[in-house]
Specification:
The chain is α+β, with helices and mostly antiparallel strands. Helices cover 16% and strands 55% of the residues. It has a single domain (2-201), classed as Porin. The chain is built from 3 helices and 11 strands. An 8-stranded antiparallel beta barrel has the order 1-2-3-5-6-9-10-11. Strands 4-8-7 form a 3-stranded mixed beta sheet, with no helix packed on it. A hairpin with a 2-residue loop joins strand 7 (140-145) and strand 8 (148-152).
Length: 202
């Protein structure tokens, strides 16, 4: 049921955002990013630094510093070799952990000092944050063994959470490049990841 709910939210968001953009006479922007993802807490005990892929669509009304962005994400971790995962059935086995999700975010771009904005500085510093729907796949821990820690592969789990962070964007030809870091927290489990993305906005 949660998967159907996520699909409805995704469809509604991608229909609503272009409509909002047209109403405000400001076209939508698309972003694509990739970069490292840093696990924290118990997730960091089992996994090294992973990677992230992000894609989104957003709009900022004309003459406004507030915008809206809908974004999909995928963060993967390969698992440390001292963590052994065993299988109890037909479920796939492995040390891999991953988080996928959909986030609904507000952006605020008026962070530079006023004198820098008056000079039309080429870079734009912004904050971003919002609510998210996540699917988390994590091996569960069951105890130590001579070879490491044994676990059982856990089926995908649907969670909700929030994210907050910031970034900087600057023009590169007819598009913009950006560097962005955010903290994503899944409220039911406390799972937290910190992806850093490098990408393009066009």
């Amino acid at each position: 049921m949660m998967r159907h709910f996520h699909s409805l939210v995704l469809a509604a968001a991608f229909v609503a955002v272009p409509g909002l953009a047209a109403a405000q006479r400001s076209g939508p922007e698309f972003n694509l990013g990739i970069g490292p993802t840093f696990p924290t807490g118990d997730l960091a005990n089992r996994n090294p630094v992973g990677y992230n892929l992000t894609a989104g669509i957003g709009v900022t009304p004309s003459a406004s510093s507030l915008g809206f962005r809908v974004e999909g994400l995928y963060d993967a971790f390969n698992g440390k070799h001292n963590y052994i995962v065993v299988c109890t059935g037909a479920a796939g086995c492995g040390r891999q952990s991953w988080v996928s999700g959909l986030t609904l975010n507000l952006t605020y771009s008026r962070l530079l000092p006023r004198h820098a904005r008056r000079r039309r500085a080429p870079a734009t510093l912004y904050a971003i944050g919002g609510y998210g729907f996540y699917t988390v796949h994590l091996p569960t821990e069951s105890g130590p063994t001579p070879g490491g820690v044994v676990g059982f592969d856990l089926r995908d789990r649907a969670l909700t959470g929030w994210n907050v962070g910031g970034g900087i964007r600057f023009p590169v030809g007819n598009v913009s490049a950006y560097v962005e870091a955010r903290v994503h927290t899944m409220t039911q489990t406390g799972t937290r990841i910190v992806p850093v993305s490098f990408g393009l906005i066009f």
